[in-house]
Amino acid sequence: MRILLVEDEAPLRETLAARLKREGYAVDTACDGEEAIFLGKEVPFDVAIIDLGLPKMTGLELIQKLRGMGQKYPILILTARSSWQDKVEGLKTGADDYLVKPFHVEELLARINALMRRATGWSKPQLECGPIELDTTAQTVAVSGNSVELTTYEYKVLEYLMLHAGELVSKADLTEHIYQQDFDRDSNVLEVFIGRLRRKLDPDTTLKPIETVRGRGYRFAIPRTN
Amino acid sequence: MRRALSLQTRLLWAASLALAAFLGATGYALDLAFKRSALQAMRDRMQSYVWAYLSGSDINVGGSLILPDIPPEPRFERPQSGLYAGVVGPGIEWRSASALGRQLPFDLRLEPGRTQFDGPIETNVGGVYRFAQGVAWEMTNGKEVQLTFFVAEHEAVLKRQITVYRRTLFAHLGTSALMLLLVQLLMLRWSLRPLRQVTSDLARVERGERDALPDRYPRELSPLTSSINDIIADEREQRLRYRNTLGDLAHSLKTPLAVIRGQLEQSGPDSATQRTIAEQVRRMDELVAYQLARAAASGHAPFAAPIEIEKHAEAIVSGLEKVYAGRGILCEFEIDPQARFYGETGDLLELLGNLLENAFKWAKGRVVLQATRIHPPGTRRPGLDLCVDDDGPGIPADKVDALLKRGVRGDERVQGHGIGLAIVQDIVRSYRGTLSVEPSPELGGARFHVRFEATR
Lengths: 226, 456
Prior knowledge:
The structure holds 2 protein chains of 2 kinds.
Chain A: E1 2-6, H1 10-22, E2 26-30, H2 33-42, E3 47-51, H3 59-68, E4 75-79, H4 84-93, E5 97-100, H5 105-119, E6 126-129, E7 132-135, E8 140-143, E9 146-148, H6 152-163, E10 168-170, H7 171-178, H8 189-201, E11 210-213, E12 217-220
Parallel strand pairs in A: 1-2, 1-3, 3-4, 4-5
Antiparallel strand pairs in A: 6-7, 7-8, 8-9, 10-12, 11-12
Helix pairs in contact in A: 2-3, 6-8
Chain B: H1 7-56, E1 58-59, E2 65-66, E3 83-89, E4 92-95, E5 115-123, E6 126-138, E7 144-154, H2 155-207, H3 222-266, H4 272-296, E8 306-308, H5 309-323, E9 330-335, E10 340-342, H6 345-362, E11 366-374, E12 383-390, H7 397-409, H8 419-430, E13 434-439, E14 446-452
Parallel strand pairs in B: 9-11
Antiparallel strand pairs in B: 1-2, 3-4, 3-7, 5-6, 6-7, 8-10, 11-12, 12-14, 13-14
């Protein structure tokens, strides 16, 4: 999951970015609207966290510009002004949720999770595809009720695939949404992760949850249950 | 205290009294003058009759008086004509034909050359006016006889004249009085029109239909109206500046708080110090949020524009539907299209936002917002009745007081219906409204009921 974080207050931006990365998100930070627009053009994000009180260009203008550029990913606004006027304006401009400063990082993580889930059409925090169940809140995976231990990156790959269950996900998509920019995209690390996931989820190869579409990417093949 | 008389009534009363006094005095003077001149005319006429009789009379050798065959006026011959003549002297007693059977006051003896005019004298035929003249008549034998000539006229003639005159006079005076009053009324209305205009323009400003008083009043009023405009503009500007300052203050206070909190949460395992700091940061944050929202609520404003409810409620609900999309809550409106909130848009948004968000938070599936206009007859500015209902667990009656009290203090640990409710309470109080929490009659959850009465 790739997150755009736009916040002008350096300490807050850095603590948040560090925390998000520890949670397994790929994070790109910007300290003002112009930088954010530049990143927004280059990088396919899954969610954006935007502070409303930005220098040069206000958060609202930034949201407007991003939406104007055709970016559809969910946007969460951070605001110090807790007035409803600001909230309503932000939501009307195109934001999908708001959080009033100061906030608990856990709260932020929960909101981001929910936003991404909703953006891909899941209504509950538990993603169920046949026997495979992924809990986005607890970040756990179970197959037929038995929990499966996954590393953070394995979890993120599976989560991304399951969020887009039934859709074709290209390798480029996966690497861009899961890894930091400095990651070597040409390596076959992704294939290694997919192989490990297949073995962990489906040791006796009866479910075949992840399909390889030759030359194009992967698809989570088990249809959504809820 | 009794209200002072209106300017128009004062002016009208004063002018009417002056007019009445003036016209009354004029009428009296004219009446008196006419009466005098009528009497004078009568006397002159009678005098001329006496002279006519004198010049036409003679005394014969026998010493008896011979009066002219043809009287100076035919009425002297016609009985009951009201005009009588007579001559009295030693041994002489003459009456005109008209005086037959009438007892007339022909009993004076005047020195020659003297005249007397008096009346009305009561007789058996009513009041008469009398003119008498004493005459010395030289007989052929050289002796002198002293005679007194009389002419009397019934008062009816004079009375009739006066009555006719008075009728005409009063008709004219009355008509002109009415005309003058009418003109005066028109003048008053015309001169007072700018004042009425100010009042109605001010009412329009109060209702929010205009921003300021227009610049089109007479010279005498413009210092007043421009002062009013300055006050209105000042008040608005100050409120705006105040709100902006508060917003900036909020931003500059809260971002550091967010940084502290972020750092605390990031740095390693929880220690007692960390927990204390975190708790204090949370309290500071809540206090800042509450006090800022409280200060920003502008409260009852005499020049507040009326704000439509539906548009703002729609904006909030479409926002909340995004935020609570996962919950699948259905929010319905029952909004009277004439319902208006008289105040700041920010306050209305705060009110609706907090109440609706609470409802969304607690509802199982349904939220209803009702807005009704309160407009009893005789009120100048209608009131507003707002109800936000949900189908959640509701609030037991014995918890309501505690909930509302907790909201007011704002410095205590608040959960669920938190700072939002405290802000709602403050806004409601500053607009002199009431907030009550009841069970929702239809949905079964809680109903938050806000009411602003109409103002007279």
